[in-house]
Amino acid sequence: MAPTTLPAEPDIASMEPPAQAAKPRSAARLLLRVVAGAALLVLVIWYADAGALWSKLSRADPRFMTLAVLLSIAANFLSALRWAVIARGLGLIAPSRKLVVMYARGVTTNMLLPGATLSGDLLRSVQLSRLGNPFVASALSVFLDRFSGLWVLCLLSLVSAAGVALWSAAANGAHIAADQMSVYLLVLAGIAAAPFIPLPFQSLARSSVAWIAVLASRWERFRSRLRQARPALVASVWQSLGVQFLSACTLWVCGLALGVPLSYPMMLAAAAPIFIMAALPIGVAGFGTRELAAVVVLGLAGVPSDLAAATSLLYGLAAVVQGILAAPLFLVRS
User: In Å, what is the CA distance from 123 to each residue of 116, 143, 218?
Assistant: First the structure.
């Protein structure tokens, strides 16, 4: 991180207008993200046919939905334990019980504030720093927790997609065209391999092109932090595997509640882009981006758009129920 330097005699009057202007710009960006998420959701509902979508949702099996909520709770409980393992690996004060409460509060925050998982992650960083930890290190533990989960998800989706492709080829009944599956596998493989690919970012950081130098410098710092945190990430890999298996199972059960005829391996194969899109800081609680990804990815597996969108919406509603259940934890002192 570059050192911050201040002029010897700062002109306070000239500094105030930019600071005041930053607030409207920040609010405008926030509003833009909310509007973008809402617009995507409206677009998906229109494309899937609102009447057909409502018909599917109204007939969802409540028993499967109850199971989906329980699976979602179990996945987030494991996520909290993974975060605790990573935080302690970074040398932070991180009692598992307290971090489970903090994580649950983050789930509730994600349901209330725009930014998908970003708002809850910020709250987690602040709460962890209040235990006596440096804020930057606390935020890093939250970031690595999120990074670990998404990377393992891509790896599991890659393995599952490869298995589905081989099984379909052997059975002569491919659900997805070979060229589409090949592209999908290559993208997932690229994401899974990205942290291990040696790239000349140290040289690029000295580039005379400013934006190249900045991006290269940031990526190199990111790789350096990954190397430092590697033992903690390895120690938490079992929690990450459990989290993603349970999260994909939640999505699968939401599909079963609507009669979606997909196997669990197929749903696990499709889960990576759906969950990654839901994590983008657009809209509220991932609604909109998640449904768009579900319509596209599940559509490649032969799922009609209304069923794909409804499955994603039920997954989001399971998270909303969990956020409501966790809301009283804001009254618990930690």
Answer: 13, 12, 24
